[in-house]
Amino acid sequence: MKKRPSPTTVAKQQPQSSKELKQLRAQLAAKEKQITHLETCLEQSRNATFRFKKQRPGRRGKGDYVRFFLPDTHGCFVDQAALSACLHDLEALQPRQVFMMGDHLDCGGFLAQHHTLGFVAQADYTFEDDIVAANTLLDEVQKRCPKAEIVYLEGNHEERIEKFCVTSALRNKVDAELLRRSIGTESVLNLEKRGIRYIRKALTYDGCRVQGTVRAGKCFVTHGTSHGKNAANAMLSRFGACVVFGHVHKLMSATDRNVKDGEFAAWSVGHLSKQQPLWRHGHPTDWSQGYGFQVVTKQEDFLHINVPIIDGRSYLAPHGDALT
After folding, report:
1. Residue 234: how many CB atoms within 10 A of its CB?
2. How far apart are CA 150 and CA 208, in angstroms?
3. Which of 88, 105, 221 is nearest to 161 (CA)?
4. pLDDT confidence of 1, banded at 50, 70, 90?
5. Cys bridge to 67: 158, 210, 294, 312, which one at CB 3.0-4.6 A?
């Protein structure tokens, strides 16, 4: 005997009211409209004219080369571990140009402008030790990259020698120049014999209007004069062009842009001397050890990189193979 459906089942099978059917038709129409809109958007995106340009991975061109900036070492006050890390990278990069940024002779002792009194350790300094340290540095640089052109910029510490000569000669120009040729940086470091160009702070070079400054392609190189945390901004304002400098013992940079030249920047390349000299006793320095280098194209466009050295370790080391 066939089972009769329950009243509830019969009620569910009954046709819905006209009001409910109207609501369902309205919902269906809204969904169809949404689908039509999405189909239109999809078609428009497929026909869009804007495309991202694909660019080939960057590779070093045939005429590309490296330009290296070796910052202040301060003679016998050099930090041996930091210098060792820097020289390792120098050898790996094999630069075409090396700029010695100045203050590679500390010129302390009788040449010092400010004497640190009360420390026996300070009395160990001799100008002879200073000269030996700077000559050893130049020997290492020339041994590790024998084909590089080397430019040595006079720093404010090497400048003390010329001031000493002028004072000792009682401001007699001829005698002062004789003394300078005898004990000046070019003489004690054998720069002419080494084939190293020396840039004096008192003279102008390469058509530059600022003394002690040289042109390196689309960039200027100088020892520097500004101090403090805003030194890079000050140098940028003074030069109004790309400039690399030392002197402040800090890794820093500043950028700007103008209507004529577009973007330009100033870079300070740190230092390789001891982080806490005696004359800063009781005042911890905010210096940063490191150096700088540029990857330069045949057209003299360049990428500048400041490399920090922390606790005797260069932070280029993990990435150096990609640049050589």
Report:
1. 17
2. 19
3. 105
4. low
5. 294
